[in-house]
Write a structure and sequence with these properties.
This protein is mainly alpha-helical and about 260 residues long. It contains 11 helices and 3 strands; from the N terminus they run αβααααααααααββ.
Length: about 260
């Protein structure tokens, strides 16, 4: 019998009523203030760098050749699906609601405030890093090499923000975050692979759509997926708690909460 179980048993003997609740996540002003502050700072820096980045240049674009693109990425320079581009945007905006799926579950709702804050932290960190890397690499999108796109589209500010895919990184982060939260709050769940499969498939789909739309190379998508998955998994993981909360009600009606670690 574990130490926690023994203590809980002893307390229960002297209580009229007792209930034990495992707290899945442990948030603190110090830790979460730091994470949120870093996330906000990364976003401010990313936006500043993007706003000050060099604009696409028509003369430079005219010198670009499809043959100069790495063979692994070159296929993206032939793509121009407007439908794929539209659906990738729809999925991106819809992905903001993915963490709210946890609110359909009572166990998750009990820690709704913690989950909401962690979701915000996940998005801030992911978006900030994505913008900073985009501003630093200044990689032209595949569409710049494609004659099916107009010069106006090629000269748009976003045409030089290919690496890495923000649609993919953001959607992956929130999808993996949600999957991790669901499994953290239901450690005994069977067929966990189903949750992870859904969490992995949604961002993979948006990555494919960005490729078909001529917006990103495979390397943009793979990198964005890896970054998003890492952050989406780590944010809830570093908040995991091993605390056991025991609420007891004595004969005099006094309620006492014991926090065991």
């Amino acid at each position: 019998m574990s130490k926690k179980t023994c203590i809980y048993f002893i307390i229960s003997l002297f209580s009229v009523g007792a209930s034990a609740q495992v707290k899945t996540y442990d948030l603190s002003w110090k830790k979460d203030g730091l994470i949120t502050g870093i996330g906000i700072s990364l976003n401010v820096l990313g936006i500043t760098l993007l706003n000050n980045a060099d604009h696409p240049d028509a003369a430079e674009i005219a010198t670009l050749r499809r043959e100069d693109v790495w063979s692994f990425d070159r296929g993206a320079t032939f793509n121009n699906s407007k439908t794929a581009g539209k659906w990738s945007d729809i999925i991106l905006y819809s992905s903001a609601t993915i963490p709210f799926l946890t609110y359909f579950d009572k166990t998750c709702r009990n820690e709704g405030g913690s989950i909401a804050l962690m979701a915000v932290e996940t998005w801030l960190i992911t978006n900030g890093i994505t913008d900073i890397v985009k501003a630093g690499t200044k990689r032209y999108r595949p569409l710049v090499y494609n004659d099916q796109f107009s010069l106006e589209e090629k000269l748009a500010n976003g045409s030089r923000r290919s690496f890495f895919s923000g649609h993919t990184s953001s959607t992956t982060a929130l999808s993996f975050f949600t999957a991790k939260v669901i499994l953290d709050t239901h450690p005994d769940m069977k067929n966990k692979w189903i949750v992870w499969s859904l969490g992995a498939t949604i961002p993979a789909a948006i990555g494919y759509l960005r490729y078909e739309a001529g917006k990103h190379y495979p390397t943009d998508i793979i990198t964005g997926y890896a970054v998003g998955a890492t952050i989406g998994y780590l944010i809830p993981h570093i908040h995991k708690s091993d605390r056991l909360s025991i609420n007891t009600i004595g004969s005099n009606g006094l309620s006492i909460t014991y926090i065991l670690k």
